[in-house]
Specification:
Layout lengths: L2 H16 L7 E3 L8 H19 L33 H5 L11 H8 L5 E8 L2 E11 L3 E12 L2 E2 L2 E9 L2 E10 L2 E9 L6 E9 L6 E8 L13 E6 L2 E6 L4 E9 L4 E3 L1 E5 L3 E5 L9 E9 L2 E9 L4 E4 L8 E13 L2 E12 L2
Antiparallel strand pairs: 1-20, 2-19, 2-21, 3-4, 4-5, 4-8, 6-7, 6-9, 9-10, 11-12, 12-16, 13-14, 13-17, 15-16, 17-18, 20-21
Length: 355
C-alpha cells in the first residue's frame, strides 16, 4: 500500500472519530470464521464489553488521578469529556507496570465484574518510530553522528514531519524539524567538551493529521561508556501532572528534568526530594502530542539520562491468550482514541473458558 493510502486512513479515521462512530475491527483469533449463531452471539457480546471498557470512566471516576485508589468498577474514559473515545491520561498510565502506581491485572479483572471473561488491553501510538545509529565521525573538537529514522505502520511507510531534541549533561538542543517519506537520515553534532551519554528524542507527526504523533528515544555514547538500559538508575512515574522519581539505589544525584513534546519543551520544577525519591510538576503543554519526560543525573562519577512518556505508553496488560490452553472464542477489537488531544490505537482482546 503506498504512503498516501496510510495518510488517507489517518484523515478518514479522525473524521469517523469526530462523528462518534466506533473504529472497531473484530477478529476471531482461534478459528478462521464465525460459523454458527453461538459464535455470532459471543462476538456481539464481546464487542459490547470492549466498548463498555472504553466508554465508561469506572468508579470512583477519579481512580486514575488518585494513586491511593483501586477502581471498584473498571473503565478508562476521561470523566466529563464530550468525546466518548477520549481516554483518561492517568487511568491509562496506571496500566503500565513501569509506573509505581500501577494497578494489576488481578485488580482490574475484579473491577471489570466479568468473572467469565478474560481480557488484554494494549495502548500504543498509531504508527511506530524506529531510531538506529549508523555511523559516527570524530573530529578534533566535535563528533558527528548519523541516525536512520523510520516511520511506519505494520511495515508500510508513513509520511511525517520530524522534530528532534538532544540531551546530554547540562545540555539541551532543539533540532529543526524535517520531512520524511518513511525513512530519513539525520546528522547530530556534539562538541567534544559535552559529557555524555547523550539521548536523541524523536517526535513524528503525520503530515495529513497533526494529532497523529509518535515518538522514540535513543541513548548513545558520547565521551562516555555505552549507556545502560532504560530504568537502570530511576523509575519514572507520571500521575496527575506530577512526576515521581524513584531512585533504584543510594548515591544518585539528580540534575535536570525536561518535558518535551512536538512543539514545546520546558524544564521541570522539583517540588520535593529525599534520599530515595523526588517529585516534579509537569506543565500542561497545549500540544496534541505525548510528553516525553527526561531526567538526568549522576551516579558517583557517571552521568546518565532516563526517560518515559506521559501518557505512559506503549503498554500491554492482561491475559496471555497466545499461550493459554484454557480459553477459546478469543476476539480482538481495535479503536482509534484520543488522550489529551493526541490520537492512539487501543486494542482489547476478550475470551472465555474453553467449552
Amino acid at each position: 500500500m503506498p504512503t498516501i493510502s496510510i495518510d488517507t486512513f489517518f484523515a478518514c479515521s479522525l473524521m469517523v472519530l469526530l462523528v462518534l462512530s466506533a473504529m472497531a475491527t473484530a477478529s476471531k483469533l482461534l478459528y478462521p470464521h464465525i460459523n454458527n449463531s453461538v459464535d455470532a452471539n459471543i462476538a456481539e457480546r464481546y464487542e459490547s464489553v470492549s466498548k463498555y471498557l472504553l466508554l465508561n470512566d469506572g468508579t470512583p471516576s477519579n481512580w486514575g488521578q488518585n494513586s491511593q485508589i483501586t477502581p471498584e468498577t473498571f473503565g478508562l474514559a476521561k470523566t466529563g469529556s464530550d468525546n466518548p473515545y477520549e481516554l483518561d491520561i492517568d487511568k491509562v498510565s496506571r496500566l503500565n507496570s513501569e509506573n509505581i502506581y500501577t494497578v494489576s491485572y488481578a485488580q482490574i479483572f475484579t473491577a471489570s465484574e466479568m468473572p467469565d471473561t478474560s481480557f488484554r488491553i494494549e495502548v500504543k501510538p498509531v504508527f511506530q518510530v524506529a531510531v538506529n545509529l549508523t555511523a559516527a565521525f570524530q573530529g578534533a573538537n566535535e563528533t558527528s553522528y548519523k541516525f536512520e529514522i523510520t516511520t511506519e505502520k505494520q511495515g508500510i511507510p508513513v509520511q511525517t514531519t520530524l522534530k528532534f531534541y538532544v540531551i546530554a549533561e547540562s545540555y539541551l538542543e532543539t533540532c529543526h524539524a524535517s520531512d520524511s517519506d518513511g525513512k530519513t537520515y539525520v546528522n547530530i553534532t556534539l562538541e567534544n567538551d559535552v559529557n555524555g551519554p547523550a539521548l536523541l528524542a524523536v517526535f513524528a507527526t503525520s503530515v495529513s493529521n497533526g494529532k497523529t504523533v509518535s515518538f522514540n528515544a535513543y541513548a548513545f555514547a558520547h565521551n562516555s561508556t555505552e549507556p545502560k538500559t532504560k530504568g537502570s538508575y530511576l523509575r519514572l512515574s507520571p500521575l496527575n501532572y506530577t512526576l515521581n522519581v524513584s531512585l533504584t539505589y543510594p548515591g544518585i544525584n539528580l540534575s535536570d528534568a525536561y518535558a518535551l513534546s512536538f512543539n514545546y519543551s520546558s524544564t521541570l520544577t522539583q517540588t520535593a526530594n529525599s534520599s530515595q525519591s523526588a517529585t516534579y510538576n509537569i506543565q500542561h503543554l497545549l500540544d496534541p502530542s505525548p510528553i516525553l519526560i527526561v531526567v538526568t543525573g549522576q551516579n558517583s562519577t557517571s552521568f546518565f539520562t532516563e526517560w518515559t512518556t506521559y501518557p505512559q505508553v506503549p503498554l500491554q496488560i492482561g491475559a496471555d491468550f497466545a499461550s493459554s490452553t484454557t480459553l477459546s472464542n478469543v476476539f480482538a477489537y481495535t479503536y482509534l482514541v484520543t488522550i489529551e488531544s493526541a490520537l492512539y490505537e487501543y486494542t482489547v482482546w476478550l475470551g472465555g473458558p474453553r467449552e
